[in-house]
Amino acid sequence: MSDHFLITDVNDSSSANTAGRSLWADARRKLYTNRLAMISLVIIVIYVLVAILVGTGLLASNWDESVGSAYEKPSWQNPLGTDIFGLSVWRKVLYGTKVSLTVAMLASLISIAIGLPLGAIAGFFGKWLDEIIVWLYSTLQSVPYILLIMAFAFVLRDKVLFKGTSYEVSLAGMTAVYLAIGLTSWVGLCRLIRGEVMKHKEREYVTAARSFGCGNFYIIFRHVLPNVFHLVIIDFSLRFVSFIHAEVILSYLGLGAKNQPSWGVMIDDARLELARGVWWQMAAATVAIFFISLALNIFGDALRDAIDPRLRKAV
After folding, report:
1. Residue 259 falls within a domain, yes or no?
2. Which of 64, 231, 237, 262 has the fewest C-beta atoms under 10 angstroms from its C-beta?
3. CA 75 from centre of chain
4. Has residue 186 been placed in a domain?
5. Cβ–Cβ under 8 Å, residues 110 and 179
6. Is residue 273 part of a domain?
7. What single DSSP character describes residue 311?
8. Which phi and psi (to 5°) does residue 260 adopt?
9. Residue of 280, 220, 255, 300 lying closest to 79 (CA atoms)
10. Whole domain around residue 202: which residue ranges?
11. 67 DSSP assignment
12. Above 70 in pLDDT, residue 148?
């Protein structure tokens, strides 16, 4: 009998310790113990630091300065060689990092700003609002994603908003790219948030908030969204890499960045150089894309496993 009570006490204590940890504390604990995720995080941080520091004078201040003759092979002086104009491929890769990460970040923020509130409103209110929002994202989803982005980028390219006013905005280069990606990529997040909000609006804490006289929008933004925001973080980490790929594709097709280096532009330039045996520009751009893509995918999967309550376990 005493052994039975002793075992029960130990189990109760373990359960209490597990239940006592918050979702975020448990997620940090899981991530810290995942060595591959931590290595991926270090790689991501390095890329982010490069994107922040490049062009500031601390790192590769001038990418458009000639550093040698055309098509020099990789050497100690020029680690990744030079292009047809004698420009350093190393510096172009660094500047391409800034372009790709900037576009992906801004596109992600636009996507979240559209998908999060629309999904919450559709899931919470239902009825005709839900039907309109579902019709909207179903229509967008019926068009192949890459064709939709290309169409938006082509329409927005070189357009000027509020022309003739003090608020005139030119949609050239990167601006058109991140707008095109952001305005077409919110559908998945909207569907995800809509489904989760439909579950949460029937729970007791929402009923309690109503009983205290809280309004619908107060309940949505103060109570419901904080309980589903972990899905936004997971979606952000997993979609970020697809936004980088979208920017590379648009730049490769001539719809992206102009007058500045980009991984997509580098690949497009190197396409004709391969026949002449000049491989280093293509290799540099693809390797840069490979490592950030791999790191983001590994870390995104680890983050999903750590944050998603349905996958939460005691470690």
Report:
1. yes
2. 64
3. 34
4. yes
5. yes
6. yes
7. G
8. -155, 150
9. 280
10. 45-311
11. -
12. yes
